[in-house]
Amino acid sequence: MRSVAADRSGSTRPYIVCVVAWVVPGAGHVWMGRRQKGLAFLVLLTILFASGIWLEGQLFPLDPAQPLVALAGLADMGVGVPYLIAKAVGAGMGRAVAVTYEYGNTFIIVAGLLNMLVALDAFDIAKGRK
Predict the structure, then answer these.
(1) Residue 93 φ/ψ, nearest 5 degrees
(2) DSSP annotation of 2
(3) Which residues, in sequence order, are CB contacts of 74 under 8 Å at separation 6+?
(4) Mean pLDDT of the residues in the chain
(5) Contact assessment for residue 79 and residue 20, using Cβ atoms and an 8 Å cutoff
(6) What span, in angstroms and rounded, lies between the C-alpha atoms of 122 and 114?
(7) DSSP state for residue 67 in the 8-state scheme
(8) pLDDT tens digits, residue range 22-59?
(9) What are the CA-CA distances from residue 79 to residues 3, 37, 129 (Å)?
(10) Percent of the chain at pLDDT above 90?
């Protein structure tokens, strides 16, 4: 199967692919014909994020007065649509006294950071570097 990235005619828009890949985990790879890889990213990153919510992790705010909290908030947002859905339904409030609280936070943050790496991978593929 020939991917969009293999078409070097300039029709690929790497920046749009990168944004799409960030918004929906794995969508950039699916768009470029790497369906199996893209669907794996979609399923696994969403499960990782949802596990963090289930483990009573917190979606951190963007609070410039607390730089580390703001960085955690940016990492949380890195997962794209699952973050927006969780915020919309009021999930991710976190319960600091829960035994699983720190694990939940870690799962949520890692899901966001991994999705950012997946988006960069999609960008590299779209640019023809991979």
Answers:
(1) -75, -25
(2) -
(3) 62, 112
(4) 91
(5) no
(6) 12
(7) H
(8) 999 999 999 999 999 999 999 999 999 999 999 999 99
(9) 24, 16, 24
(10) 88
Task: Report in angstroms the alpha-carbon separations of 55 from 12, 62, 72, 108.
Answer: 39, 21, 17, 10
pTM of the model: 0.87
pLDDT of residue 10: 56
Q: Are 5 and 124 in contact (CB under 8 A)?
A: no
CA distance 116 to 75: 9
Tokens of 72: 């955690």
Task: Kindly compute the dihedral angle of the four CA atoms of residues 78, 10, 37, 28, in this order, to the nearest 10 degrees.
Answer: 30
Q: Under a CB-based contact definition with an 8 Å cutoff, are residues 28 and 85 in contact?
A: no
Specify the pLDDT at position 62.
Answer: 93
Interatomic CA distance for residues 26 and 123, integer angstroms: 12
For residue 117, how many C-alpha atoms fall within 13 Å in the half-sphere facing its CB?
Answer: 8
Mutual angle of helices 67-77 and 101-127, in 10-degree steps:
60
| SS3 label, residue 48 | helix
At position 85, the amino acid (one-letter code) is I
What is residue 129's predicted lDDT score, i.e. its pLDDT?
A: 87
